[in-house]
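step: validate -> pass
step: tokenize input -> pass
step: predict -> running
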Amino acid sequence: MNKSKVNLLVLSFHTCPLSKLGTESAGGMNVYILKLSHALEKLGFSIDIFTKNHSECSEDITIINSNIRVIHLNTVPEHVTKEDLYEHVVRFQKQLLNYIHKNKLTYNIIHSHYWLSALIGIEISQALDIKNVVTFHTLAEIKNQTYAQEKESLLRSNKEQEIINTTDSIIVSTYHELDVLIQHHQAESTKVNVVPPGVDLSLFNPLNKKESIKRLGIEDRPIILYVGRIDPIKGLPILIESMNYLKSNKNPKLLVIGDNTAQNDTTKISLELIKKYELENNVTFTGPIDQTQLPLYYNAASLCIIPSHYESFGLVALEAMACKTTVIGTKVPGLESIIQDQVNGILVEVNSPIKLASAIDKLLSNNDLNSRIAENGYNKSKDMTWDLFALKTSIIYQNLIR
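step: predict -> pass
step: emit ->
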């Protein structure tokens, strides 16, 4: 490594940032890590991202550029569920330390993502005598409060409390998460930093709608877009059910961008609803789409819907806004931190397909309103870039480096 640079060790144990987006464990966090790394590299950082080995990446080391690489450690058998990964934390931690010593690597600071990585980061930081920064992305406390159907384990809750007590600094995306950390976890306010993520404005920007539709080879009809993992907390069945209540005579089409091959209850329920309401001609699953192709889909869409039961932030909302596409989201803290209802987006009650359908109908029938909200969303996105996020994050790092 170049000794003149700040050497950053990034931990993303449970998911590789290079995994195909929309699959079971690959979503906004993966984008967050990669985009932050690219922006930090421009500020003089050299970055090693450590993750578990997986079949999508056949190389042990993937070189992103001269100062960013992803290093896969072969510690976890393929297809171990996220819930069972805790049993492999200690092994990964030991192999990581061996790798660092064997290759004579030096780091100035660690940034751990998600609670499993944070457990590893705390041990590695002590072994290397450097500080550990944590971004949880989701907290068990918030998920348990907002989504009763699927409770997080007591183990996770207890470990998150240990991490909060012992880590050196925490970065959160919203003030709501800050409040939860202070009120429910008694976190020291001085070590929690609120830094909203950004959007890549060089990739996500407005394009001609008809040209985007033509390039994608899809029908020229109003497109409603869902982008994300097909996971219970993301609320896809609510959106599909809302299609049954639409009154619009414009025959809108729902495109679902995400891995519909995942064998889980959400996929099953979604398919059952499509059959129940005879929506086969109105709902299409595209499968995962490379992020470089997402701008075409956002620009082809009349609306982007985020029907989540919980969002820690909502990068999809920012991406859609940057493409000047109107966003309808749910009234959850992560989305409420970005969307001002009726101004730069629309917010509806969680788990309410009828209210969601009403909001969709309203925007599809009122082009002026749709355009005005889309314009305001676009203006909002221009103030939120990864470069600004990286600059604020780098200041947090520098204040911790000895």
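step: describe -> The longest strand covers residues 45-52.
step: cleanup -> pass
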